[in-house]
Write a structure and sequence with these properties.
alpha+beta, Phosphorylase Kinase, domain 1, Transferase(Phosphotransferase), domain 1, 3 domains, six-stranded antiparallel sheet, 25 helices, elongated, disordered C terminus
Length: 653
């Protein structure tokens, strides 16, 4: 016998003699709680099986009536894709709902973990179409379809179906007087059909909209209705969503069209559940079956058009009443906020097309243009064209095609250095060294070209699936090194959303810093790395550059610092959560101290004749790193909690 844990894992239930409920259900332990009650794992002593028992206190008459409605709605339904209700009863203090115990995870948790493939999503959506059709056929409108109310069972252990719909706490029974008045609003605003949000009549079309929006979010990685704040979410309700095909051009066009139709703001144009089911099931074999995360960025720029915002604001002012509006905000806050990050993933493979929001294009363009200007001004002889014009041209290209533009920029700079005419370089200073300062340079700076490729290609390739702005971000590490603050870089890299991107960024910042240090002869982090020669020895030869720069950096142990920074960046979001200020400060202090100590330990382990080098600006860099870690989290708000329990009985608890 197994039970579901809050994390979705399964463990044997604890033995013990808990309270006996309804004369036969022995409570084992509490495993969930919500607005309407507390959920317990229990053992059915009559049938010798695990069950879920939801206890709803009846002190409030409205809550008692809602519990009775929930039981009545669930009792009408018997479908493999709906959590089954076994029994209901009450005593002087509470109402009890006894349901099957589902071993698995919520759809919300699985999407956040990247555990589902596109094919899984379509199969789950089709199963839920059947579940809702069954409910509608028996006069039950769910009214709160969302990822947190969808359970994906562990079929190998539970024998369940593809997915199970739960939480009928606010369901509407069509053949009875409605529990709420016309104009009242119940549900979760981020998944609510426009007519439901405005307090109008709720029909089967409302559930169709919510389910289609869940599938849309699962495939695109973003719920375009949910804004940065509850008010922004309320303004977005009723707007036409961006076509799914724009976000996932790798999906079949007919599939995208079926989902887009079902999320039409006009109920009369949504079609039927059978139409959505046919689109999902008919294309399940045409999409990928590899699990992966599709992380989307906030699509507020799409809905920030003045005309639309004005119209929605007007409708919001005319909302049923202030209490309803506050209820929307509370529900949306409970559902969680969209978190920003520079690490959104491509939909299908590292080279797949993915739309980039305007803000991401701007950051990428500025970064690429700035780096191009620095490279043209400091590397090789003066270019035959104006440096500012070239930088602006690069920025324009990157703004249009960010990832491809970044790749072409790296290759173009390397090609320019390879084909550079014979001449004298300008000798621009950086710190106490010079980037290039040679007389009578021969045609072709292949050594410099190799360093440009060694720095740029790993950033472009490894971060192809990240927001393009991150590709040029490692340049901040050597800049911080000039200010004796290089240790602050892992705190910046730790702001990327995906852990793999944080690992890459942490390591790349150190790698770029070491390359710039070798190129300039300036101490940006460490003293001279053993084996790295003066730039005059290798700038004109790729072979010499490999022997006297790349090979020593890779073999001396200096890249161990890159590993330290990568790990520090990767774990940062798991430590600084933004929920308790004092705890965040304490953890950030410990994290920064550990970063400085580990970096210093690796540096002192490097071989050399001059004794172990010290890390430049270790204390100041660590202080800034800790401050940035806390400040960045405070600016974004608390990290979103994963759904608390991996299973839920049919109810709002």
């Amino acid at each position: 016998m197994q039970q579901a844990s809050p994390t979705g894992q399964t463990h044997p239930p604890s033995a013990g003699g808990g309270e006996l409920v309804l004369g036969r259900y022995r409570r084992v332990r509490r495993i969930g709680a919500g607005g309407m009650g507390v959920v317990w794992l229990a053992h059915d002593e009559k049938l010798d099986r695990p069950v879920a028992v939801k206890r709803i206190a009846t002190g409030d008459e409205a809550v008692a009536r809602r519990a009775a409605r929930e039981a009545k709605a669930a009792a009408r339904l018997a479908h493999p894709a709906i959590v089954s209700l076994y029994e209901t009863g009450r005593d002087e203090e509470a109402v009890y709902l006894v349901s099957e115990l589902v071993v698995g995870s919520t759809l919300a948790a699985l999407l956040e973990e990247g555990a589902l493939s596109d094919r899984d999503v379509l199969q789950i959506g089709a199963a839920l179409c059947d579940a809702l059709a069954h409910a509608h056929g028996r006069g039950v409108i769910h009214r709160d379809v969302k990822p947190q109310n969808i359970i994906v069972p562990d079929t190998q252990q539970s024998g369940g179906g593809v997915a199970k719909l739960t939480d009928f706490g606010i369901a509407m029974l069509l053949d009875e007087d409605v529990l709420t008045r016309t104009g009242d609003v119940v549900g979760t605003i981020a998944y609510m059909a426009p007519e439901q949000a405005e307090g109008h009549e709720v029909t089967a079309q409302s559930d169709l909209y919510a389910l289609a929006l869940v599938v849309y979010e699962a495939l695109s990685g973003v719920n375009p209705v949910r804004g940065r704040t509850p008010a922004a979410t309320a303004r977005n309700v009723g707007e036409r969503l961006p076509r799914l095909e724009r976000l996932r051009r790798d999906l079949p066009r007919e599939l995208c069209a079926a989902i887009d139709q079902a999320v039409d703001p006009d109920p009369g144009r949504r079609g039927k559940l059978t139409d959505l089911r046919a689109g999902l099931r008919g294309h399940a074999g045409d999409v990928g079956d590899e699990p992966g995360t599709v992380e989307g960025s906030t699509l507020e720029p799409v809905t920030r058009i003045t005309r639309r915002a004005t119209r929605r604001a007007t409708r919001l002012v005319a909302a049923p009443d202030a209490q309803a509006a506050r209820g929307w905000a509370a529900e949306d806050t409970h559902a969680g906020r969209v978190q920003d990050g520079w690490g959104d993933a491509a939909p299908d493979g590292p080279w797949a097309w993915r739309p980039v929001p305007p803000s991401g294009r701007a950051v990428a363009a500025v970064g690429a243009g700035g780096l191009t200007a620095v490279a043209l001004a400091t590397l090789g002889p003066p270019p035959p064209f104006a440096t500012p014009a070239a930088a602006v041209a690069v920025a324009a290209v990157v703004a249009v095609v960010p990832r491809l533009g970044a790749l072409l920029t790296v290759l173009g700079l390397a090609l320019w250095l390879l084909l550079a005419p014979e001449g004298v370089a300008p000798g621009v200073g950086l710190g106490h060294g010079v980037v290039v300062n040679r007389a009578g340079a021969r045609a072709g700076d292949s050594g410099l070209a190799l360093l440009v490729l060694a720095a740029g290609l790993p950033a472009v390739i490894a971060l192809w699936r990240a927001r393009p702005g991150w590709m040029s971000a490692p340049a901040l590490a050597p800049l911080l090194g000039v200010l004796s603050l290089a240790l602050a870089w892992p705190a910046i890299a730790g702001q990327a959303r995906r852990v793999t991107h944080r690992l890459v960024l942490g390591a790349l910042g150190c790698w770029w810093l070491l390359l710039v240090q070798a190129l300039t002869g300036t101490t940006l982090l460490l003293g001279p790395v053993p084996g790295v020669r003066d730039p005059l020895r290798w700038t004109g030869s790729a072979q010499e550059a490999f022997l006297h720069v790349l090979a020593p950096l890779l073999t001396s142990g200096a890249v161990g610092i890159a590993a330290v920074w990568a790990l520090a960046a990767a774990v940062l979001p798991f430590l600084i959560r933004g929920r308790h200020g004092a705890l965040d400060i304490a953890l950030a202090t410990a994290w920064a101290a550990g970063l400085a100590a580990a970096t210093q330990a690796v540096a002192r382990a490097l071989p050399g004749d001059g004794g172990p080098p010290d890390v430049r600006g270790a204390v100041l860099g660590a202080v800034l790193a800790g401050g940035l870690a806390v400040g960045a989290r405070a600016a974004r708000g608390p990290a979103r909690e994963r759904p608390g329990t991996a299973w839920r009985p049919p109810g709002r608890g």
